[in-house]
Amino acid sequence: MTLADKGLNLQAEAxxxxxxxxxxxxxxxxxxxxxxxxxxxKVQKIIRNALVQINLRELREAAYRSLNTFANRQYETYLRxxxxxxxxxxxLIALSNSxxxxxxxxxxxxxxYEMRLDTDARGVPLQEYAKDYLxxxxxxxxxxxxxxxxxxxxxxxxxxxxxxxxxxxxRYAVHEQNISDLRAEGVKLVVCSVHxxxxxxxxxxxxxxxxxxxxxxxxxxxxxYVPLEVARDVYYTxxxxxxxxxxxxxxxxxxxxxPYSVGMVIPHVDHxxxxxxxxxxxxxxxxxxxxxxxxxxxxxxxxxxxxxxxKARRLAIKANKEYIQFSKDNGRAYYPSRTKLL
Length: 342
Description:
The chain is of the alpha+beta class. 60% of the residues lie in helices and 6% in strands. It has helices spanning 3-31, 36-51, 57-82, 86-96, 102-115, 126-147, 162-184, 200-203, 228-232, 271-301, 306-329, and strands at 189-192, 209-211, 217-218, 224-227, 235-237, 243-245, 257-259. It has a five-stranded mixed sheet. Helix 1 runs antiparallel to helix 7 (162-184) and helix 6 (126-147) runs antiparallel to helix 10 (271-301).
């Protein structure tokens, strides 16, 4: 794993961990009927601790906005769905827990009676009512809360996650620093690295020679070269009408540049191999996301609904094993830091 990848993981993971901690802080604060001021104080501490680990100014600013918006959305979902009746939900959770002692059951039943909430379950034993209500009314809300993620605040589509924004920002910064260093060293010609699992976007640009001084021509050994900007300055416009530069060294590009030397051997990857390896890469990322999603579910359901917690934990462990085995079977490195379990 390169130093760039380590830097990428550290910053992306710091923000994802902050998202998880905020999710739990809001959940626990609401269940304890804490004031929004108190919950927000905890949230701000989590955000501050995360931001000190972010090296890029623009990413720090985006993360601050994103994590605050995420925290507010989590809190507002609880209020919209449940209002200020966390004691009622806690009583339902307690009553549905068959392992509680009788005194705890009595306290939970008293809470439900004192709330005097309207219900269609009159005449149903409270313990059975609690289980049904949790299953049909409470748990779907937790599912929606779990599905919420911290988003890139500058993405007009609303689909890009903050984690992905971090990966994009860090890689871009590494590319810019690499080019700056090469120019400072007086390097005129560079060659782009070759990856078997290269994206379709970069496939036609990899393994080629480029100039850093804006010139075009041929090397002493007959290789053609053009300005690096030809490969980099490729623009596209989203359906929302926003235009991005996204050629070589663009979004999440893992290519690197190194000084070119006459006669150097440059690997070649045929289209069929590139497509096959790219599918493997895509599958790896899918498996990583699956582990993180189930881990998040387990964390939220811990101390709330034991069966859901255990199921999500089992699925996270299973997905992690599948991720590791898939990586080994396909000769790929895997990154435990991306799929940390509970």
